[in-house]
Amino acid sequence: MTGITIALSKGRIFDETVPLLAAAGIQPLEDPETSRKLILQTNRTDVRLIIVRASDVPTYVQYGAADMGVAGKDVLNEHGGIGLYQPLDLRIACCRMMVAVRDDFDYESAVRQGARLRVATKYVQTARDHFAAKGVHVDLIKLYGSMELAPLVGLSDAIVDLVSSGSTLKANHLKAVEHIADISSRLVVNQAALKLKYAVIQPMLDAFALAVQK
Ligand code: ATP
Ligand code: MG
Fold it and tell me: 95-181 belongs to which CATH class?
């Protein structure tokens, strides 16, 4: 089958990918916010979209259930990127991976004293790598969302989370104390699909690359 399946998540990634798809001549026939369908047809009979959780995009592409997808660098770092070709930074869904603590917590001095920090996060791999590189000992607590709550109720000293405007941190009396990485979303392509469906995929990659430059 020469058709192409593209994995996207609802929300900001879908919304910010639509203009890039349009540049490649692809228009979704339905809106995932109003449709309950998980497989969306497009104006092109050879291209369909599947709607999955943001953190599941690399998995669908890795196993070839989707030929390509759009995933945040945060998600790709956690996944590890095995079996994925990452040809393009789409420069969408931009934000920063940060360490944050309560307003009244002296992070610098805790680190200086070699205190063992409790860190709550959805991004366990990223957090482990970051603190290991700094030589800071941490106990990681895996969460699936609402990380901002953890320091407020004594679950952790710090969180590792994505920050864009900083208003969520501020609203919860937290402050960002360390920048871990700049995050944006990447195009990911299944390596076997790229070879087998090169004639269809390569022109799409070129169109996306052109649209990103603008
Ligand atoms: P789920 O809702 O399934 O638990 P999620 O919350 O990670 O997953 P989204 O909030 O849609 O899903 O985020 C998708 C991607 O957008 C993230 O992986 C990240 O790369 C990026 N992102 C997350 N938060 C922000 C933000 N505040 N500003 C800009 N980009 C963001
Ligand atoms: Mg979300």
Answer: alpha beta
